């Protein structure tokens, strides 16, 4: 992770954007830029099987104009317990009705809490009081740390747990601009802001070259979004996949 830098000018408000390399977080980054924030993007190499997403995140950060992009390394394979960090098969070909019930095995225990804790520390060192997270509570896979009540609880905690929250003139605000949007709405919003979705990766179980499996929950939800938006997913053309 890049570190040790200080940014003294406060002429432009800064925001931390959690960037996974998928279409949701890319759209959240574009929204932050469009709202005039100086964006500092952060990604995580946490032992995920779909680490190709970090290559996508780096490209998205560069293209959309992030001031700084950092990657934090830690290994959640130490704990396992998820198909993304353990030797557990990623579920495939699940029906939308199945996705809407229960918490899937692709849930990584406490992942967003860990991610947001790093983002909060990053925000304090950069003088940022805003962070953007591309969670969605409509077309999503049932993760408990994507719900509005979780986001509100973390924001309250952040303003109790940090020097910036206690002494600062402004409260820390956690923005979730996509939380009430369908995947189709997110696709439309991203395109309107100039997001090149061919640079993104949503797949939980991609091929070695990064090609999406088109069968995991993340792929199915992504393709549902593009289909409902009436737009071809450009990542398919990138890998020569006919649909």
First CA to last CA: what distance?
39 Å
What is the H/E string?
A: EHEHEHHEHHEHHH
Number of helical stretches of at least 4 residues: 9
Largest sheet: 5 strands, parallel
CATH superfamily: HUPs
CATH architecture: 3-Layer(aba) Sandwich
| CATH fold-level assignment | Rossmann fold
Q: How much is the average pLDDT?
A: 92
Overview of this protein structure:
The chain is of the alpha/beta class. The protein has one domain: HUPs (Rossmann fold, 3-Layer(aba) Sandwich). The chain is 37% helix and 10% strand. The chain contains nine helices and five strands, in the order E-H-E-H-E-H-H-E-H-H-E-H-H-H. It has helices at 23-34, 53-64, 96-99, 111-126, 148-161, 163-167, 183-192, 217-229, 234-238, and strands at 14-18, 38-45, 68-73, 130-132, 173-175. Strands 3-2-1-4-5 form a five-stranded parallel beta sheet, sandwiched between helices. The protein is globular.
Characteristics of this structure?
243 residues, alpha/beta, Rossmann fold, five-stranded parallel beta sheet, 5 strands, 37% helix
What is shown here, in short?
With 243 residues, this protein is an alpha/beta fold. Helices cover 37% and strands 10% of the residues.
Secondary-structure map with pairings?
Layout (H helix, E strand, L loop, with lengths): L13 E5 L4 H12 L3 E8 L7 H12 L3 E6 L22 H4 L11 H16 L3 E3 L15 H14 L1 H5 L5 E3 L7 H10 L24 H13 L4 H5 L5
Parallel strand pairs: 1-2, 1-4, 2-3, 4-5
């Amino acid at each position: 992770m890049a570190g040790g830098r200080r940014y003294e000018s406060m002429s432009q408000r800064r925001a931390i954007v959690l960037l996974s390399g998928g279409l949701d977080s890319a759209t959240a980054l574009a929204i932050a830029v469009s709202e005039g924030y100086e964006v500092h993007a952060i990604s995580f190499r946490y032992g995920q099987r779909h680490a190709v997403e970090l290559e996508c995140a780096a490209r998205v950060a560069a293209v959309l104009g992030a001031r700084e992009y950092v990657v934090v390394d830690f290994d959640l394979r130490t704990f396992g317990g998820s198909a993304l960090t353990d030797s557990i098969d990623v579920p495939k070909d699940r029906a939308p009705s199945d996705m809407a019930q229960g918490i899937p095995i692709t849930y990584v225990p406490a992942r967003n809490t860990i991610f947001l804790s790093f983002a909060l520390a990053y925000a304090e060192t950069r003088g940022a009081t805003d962070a953007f997270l591309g969670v969605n509570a409509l077309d999503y896979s049932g993760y408990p740390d994507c719900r509005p009540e979780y986001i509100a609880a973390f924001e309250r905690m952040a303003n109790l747990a940090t020097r910036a929250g206690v002494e600062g003139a402004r409260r820390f605000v956690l923005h979730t601009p996509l939380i009430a949007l369908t995947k189709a709405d997110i696709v439309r919003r991203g395109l309107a802001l100039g997001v090149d979705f061919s640079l993104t990766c949503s797949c939980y179980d991609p091929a070695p070259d990064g090609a999406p499996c088109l069968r995991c929950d993340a792929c199915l939800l992504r393709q549902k979004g593009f289909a409902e938006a009436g737009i071809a997913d450009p990542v398919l053309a990138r890998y020569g996949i006919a649909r």
